[in-house]
Structures are given as structure tokens and as C-alpha cells.
DNA sequence: ATTCACCTTGCAACCGATTGCATTTTTATT
DNA sequence: AATAAAAATGCAATCGGTTGCAAGGTGAAT
């Protein structure tokens, strides 16, 4: 049952009666090796079925060509799009992706960081969990100068680049749109305020109100997990309010869709009685009826940029020392919020 | 700019004035080391900030505790759910996931397999690309006894386990349901017939017809990429048919939703004029109106089982020598297909 | 006191590739 | 042909753990 032993550079060296050092150099196109020697080596390697040993190399080089990715959850449209973008770039540049989900738990996040650390990833791409309080668990890596890039759910850190959209502006755009549609009482449904994305969107929501001189009823702000279930519950809660809100801005589309379903089921018309704006531009947003007004969030692009920036940083290429990188978002207006003509 | 050097077992050995061998053994709870020695070692390791070096270990052990995952695309609900399941199990059992997308291209699939091979993954979880013709590119790994498990889009191989649902039965169930709803001309929209999933669903579609003695018009079978765009085009094609079909069974929900949208837009009523059944039970299936009848496909579970089986195989644990593992599917009947009361 | 068995620990080879420096070979120059 | 310069190759140490086997230490039994 023993499988044939792996071919090493020593085997090739012996077969060709040269030294392993020459084989090693020949294999990687070192300038100081004669052309025909190289050809001989390559040929022998090919026909002996040589596969290089990544560990041995990594052990010497102290580089893994692997990027760690730590995310809350993989199975949302947004996140899978981000990962797809990262994978594309990583693949092109010869890197692999090591992916780990925190399930929104800070504890798991810490464990993931440690595993990644032990696996000696060359860099880290991180989107923080709901309940992460501080980012000390990244210190060990940063001390070793391993670059870390935060995306979407970011943290402030002088040594780390953050890739985001302008969530304040996005929240502002969404809310202002609702106000422009004649909404007077707008509810906000978002996730944990520990996370920039939700705190910022709420900030934008407030700014828009302030700018128009509209007072905000604090009872209209709902913080939950933004799951489908949470969305339904939020809808129930909203429908108990008196007076009823006439607009809802919610920080993801899953939640928005769940809310619209509940509202419709309860006989409340959208957008006439309550206008709704979501966030992310998930495919469901143009399937729900009425089609959902939402913020377009360029996931694939964010993934690509995050990966590119990280790989450039790893290799000391330019464009590396930015602190924050802000991608463009846009408000996509569909029927769920349109009350004027 | 030099970061402090990594702590090795040699550093610990020196600090404690014992041998590196003892440190190595102490660190992993080897039976032949005295309790207090172990405690001393652990304590020193902790406070010196020791992190084990995975490469050095892998180089010796020839094991990476890493599983390669090769999939067509990451950004579908089904696939991200599968990966979420795999990641959960892998994480619990101390494995990492190395993920690679083929973008449905056989060429990229071959490249991915080679990269995984070089990375010395302990095993492979694979769902085949659309246009993969044969599976010879896995031979090198199989020759080295590296276990490979296919899931969803599988290939026959005596040495590999396949994890699937009964696609023939699922196709049969879907079609039979349409027939029972009074459909006489049912169109089938699916992906490449090189892939078992689509070939089998078509087979089930035919079986159902045969069983009821209904003839099939070959013009009603459409093969495409199952993308949203392809769905819209398929809908256009179907609407040109004369006579119009009165039922459509399509092999994913993305496609089904795109088709329903086109039909509705063209003023064709679903399910009255054309009943539609999809596949996968994506979230969009219960958002589209009418809600989509579909086949529930247990993605998370499939991911968990695939990962569990692979890890067991890697470690020579039982339940490893199955050839095929069939998960339960179920037909979820919603409005898009219900024409009777 | 001696012997033996067992428990702990250490020695040293090994895993496979990389690389600074020394050495040999080739080429160019006179 | 002799010699210097340049090019090609080899030597050997190194990366950080792991592990078979040997050696040292302990206590019990005789």
C-alpha cells in the first residue's frame, strides 16, 4: 500500500550526476546556470514527475504564498461575491486563500487569527465579527510585520489599511431619498453599533434628518442581527408602533425583504404606507415585489482591491501605504420607496 | 525594521537547559515526559511567546492538515452554503480549507488540481466544472493515495467517494408534480449534459413522462449555462414556441426566477398559463411572486458530510470506503406550479 | 551491595529546498 | 601557450521540528 516515494531535487541531481544546488537553481531559472544544463534539469524533472515541496521551501523562505481570510459568514451574497473577487486576484498572482468563518463571534475570531498565525500566512484580509470589542488579537501578527487589511467591517489602526465604502454617505443617501419621498417618520434597522458599517449608516441617517431639520424618535432605531428572522421580528415591532412609521431604512437586503414580506402579509402597502430602502443590492432585491430600493455595494470589486492591495503590500510594491480606501457606492432607486409619480 | 526573531524549541531548550527533543515532546504531551518537566516547558513556551512552525512540522510529518476545495463558482447561494458547512467541520477537526474556483473551465480546474497537489493538501473536495471531459488530472493525486471526494457534480471513479442527491428522482419528482398539475407540454432547462446533475435531472424528467405515457418533444429541452442571463434568453426562446409549453422545469432557481420574470413581463401568467419548478431552494425562491416550487437541496449538510467523510478517510477512520453517498432531497411545492385548487 | 527493569531525557539523523561563498570550468586576452 | 577574467557549478550550513535508539537515572527486588 506504500505509494511511490516523492521525487526530490536530490533524485534529479543523482540521475544527472550534478549537485542538488544546481538542480534547485536550474528549476527556478537562476541566471548563473547554463542554458543546456537548465534544459536537461527541466526535462529530467518533467519526466521523473518532480513536484516541488512547498514546506521545505517555505521553511527556508519563510513565505507561504497564502493569504488568510477571516470573515463573519460566508453564505451571504455580498460575502461570497467578495471572496470570489479575492480568489480571482489571488489566483492570478500565485497566492492561495485560507478561509475561516467567525460566525460573528469574537472568540472564534481570536482562534482564527491564531490558527492563521501558526499557518504563517503572508497577510490577512479581515472583516470583523459583530461582537469584537478590540483588535488586540492582531497585535502578534502586526508585531511580526505581517500586513493586515480590513474590509467592510473595519477597525482603526495606524498600521492597517481599511477598505470601505462611505457608509455615512450611503446612510445619508438612503435616508435623504426617503425624506424626499415624503417620509416623516423613518425607522432604522441595523446591526451592532460596534461595527463601523452600522454605526456609520445610522450616523448618515441622523445627518440627513438634521440637515432637513426633522426630529428623530429614538424608538425608531432598531438594532438586531439583520438575519431574516430578525427582520421579521423587527417588522412586527414596527407594526406595533403608534403612529406607524412611513419609511424604513435597513442595513441589509435580507432584512429589508423579510420586513416587506411581513408588511405585505399584514396588509400594509409598500411603498404607499411604508417606503423601504435596503442595503447591498443582493439579487433578491430585484426579485421582491415591489423591487427593493437599495445601496449598490461593489462586493467583487472590494474583494479584488483588498487582495491586490494586500499582495502589493506583502511584496513591497507601491500603493501600499494608504490608510483608507473608499469605494464608490450608489443608490439604486426601485419601487419599494417611490411614492411620487 | 527587523521584527524580533521567532521563538523556536531550541530557544526554549536553551532557556530551560534541556534538549530540544524533550521540548518537542513536552509540547505535544508525549507520554514519556515527566509531568513537572512538561509544565515547565509549557510555561516557558507560553511566556516566551512560542508559536510552532507548521512548515518544519509538515516537512517531517508530510501532512498539512489542509483540505483543498475545487468548485466551479463560489458566489451562488448553494455553493456558499456548502462551503460554510465544510468550513464548520474542518474548523472543528483542526483542518484548514484551501479554496479555488474553476469558473466552469476545465483548464482552470486542471491548474487548480496541480496547485493543490504542490501545496500537499491532505485531501480534495471537488465539484466539477461544466466542460470537464475526463478526470485524468486527478490521477497524480490518486496515485499518491490522496483521497478525493466529489460532491454535487461528481465523476465515477472506483477510488473516490461521491456525495450527491438522487438527481434522477428529483427530476422525476419535479416533472411528475407538473404532470399532476395538468401540464401537457413541459420544457426542461438545464446545464451541460456532461455533468451528472443535469443529465440525471433530464433523465428523471424523461422517466416521469414515460411512466405517464406522455411523449416528449425534443425541442422542449434547452441546455444553457443556467445564469440569470441564460434564463432570460431561455424564456424568450420558450415564448417563441408554438404551441406554448404549459410547464417548465429548470435546474436551478436563478434560472427559474429569471424565466418567471420574463414570462410575467410578457403578460404570461404563472402558474395558470405556464407552471414553473426550479431547483435548489435558494432564498430567492420564496421571494419571487409567485413563490417558486423547487427541490430542496441540503447544501450545508452536503458540505458537512463531504468534509467529515474526507477527514475520516484521511485518518483511516471508518465509514470511509463508501462509493456513493446519497442525501435526501424534497420537493417544496409553492405557488409557481399549483394549478389545482 | 548488586542486578534488573522501567522511566526520563538526550543525541543525532532526517525531512527537502535554498544560498553565500568557494571552487572548477570556460572563455577571452595577450 | 599562459594567464586573467568571467561563467558555471558544487559544498555545506541552514530553516525548525520529529523520532528511533542509546544512555542516564531511579527504585525495587534479591
Automatic annotation (TrEMBL), chains A, B:
GO terms for molecular function: DNA-binding transcription factor activity; transcription cis-regulatory region binding. InterPro entries: HTH_LacI, LacI/GalR-like_sensor, Lambda_DNA-bd_dom_sf, Peripla_BP_I. Residues 7-61 form the HTH lacI-type domain. Pfam families: LacI, Peripla_BP_3. The keyword Transcription applies. It comes from the Bacteria. The keyword Metal-binding does not apply. Keywords: DNA-binding, Transcription, Transcription regulation. This is LacI family transcriptional regulator. It comes from Chryseosolibacter histidini. The lineage of its organism: Bacteria, Pseudomonadati, Bacteroidota, Cytophagia, Cytophagales.
Amino acid at each position: 500500500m506504500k505509494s511511490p516515494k516523492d521525487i526530490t531535487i536530490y533524485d534529479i541531481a543523482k540521475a544527472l550526476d550534478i549537485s542538488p544546488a544546481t538542480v534547485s537553481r536550474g528549476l527556478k531559472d537562476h541566471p548563473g546556470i547554463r542554458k543546456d544544463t537548465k534544459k536537461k534539469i527541466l526535462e529530467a524533472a518533467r519526466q521523473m514527475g518532480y513536484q516541488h515541496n512547498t514546506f521545505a521551501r517555505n521553511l527556508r523562505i519563510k513565505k507561504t504564498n497564502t493569504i488568510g481570510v477571516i470573515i463573519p459568514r460566508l453564505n451571504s451574497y455580498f460575502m461570497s461575491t467578495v471572496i470570489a473577487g479575492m480568489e480571482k486576484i489571488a489566483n492570478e498572482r500565485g497566492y492561495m486563500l485560507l478561509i475561516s468563518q467567525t460566525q460573528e463571534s469574537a472568540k472564534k475570531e481570536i482562534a482564527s487569527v491564531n490558527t492563521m498565525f501558526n499557518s504563517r500566512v503572508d497577510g490577512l484580509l479581515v472583516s470583523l465579527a459583530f461582537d469584537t470589542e478590540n483588535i488586540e488579537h492582531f497585535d502578534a501578527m502586526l508585531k511580526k510585520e505581517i500586513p493586515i487589511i480590513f474590509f467592510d467591517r473595519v477597525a482603526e489602526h495606524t498600521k492597517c489599511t481599511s477598505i470601505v465604502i462611505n457608509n455615512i454617505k450611503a446612510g445619508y443617501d438612503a435616508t435623504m431619498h426617503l425624506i424626499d419621498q415624503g417620509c416623516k417618520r423613518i425607522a432604522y434597522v441595523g446591526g451592532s453599533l460596534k461595527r463601523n458599517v452600522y454605526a456609520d449608516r445610522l450616523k448618515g441617517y441622523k445627518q440627513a434628518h438634521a440637515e432637513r431639520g426633522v426630529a428623530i424618535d429614538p424608538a425608531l432605531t432598531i438594532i438586531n442581527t439583520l438575519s431574516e428572522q430578525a427582520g421579521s421580528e423587527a417588522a412586527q415591532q414596527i407594526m406595533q408602533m403608534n403612529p406607524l412609521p412611513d419609511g424604513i431604512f435597513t442595513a441589509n437586503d435580507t432584512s429589508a425583504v423579510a420586513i416587506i414580506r411581513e408588511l405585505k402579509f399584514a396588509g400594509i402597502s409598500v411603498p404607499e404606507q411604508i417606503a423601504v430602502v435596503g442595503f447591498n443590492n443582493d439579487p433578491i432585491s430585484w426579485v421582491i415585489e415591489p423591487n427593493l430600493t437599495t445601496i449598490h455595494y461593489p462586493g467583487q470589486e472590494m474583494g479584488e482591491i483588498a487582495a491586490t492591495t494586500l499582495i502589493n503590500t506583502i511584496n513591497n510594491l507601491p500603493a501600499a501605504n494608504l490608510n483608507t480606501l473608499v469605494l464608490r457606492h450608489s443608490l439604486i432607486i426601485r419601487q419599494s420607496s417611490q411614492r411620487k409619480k
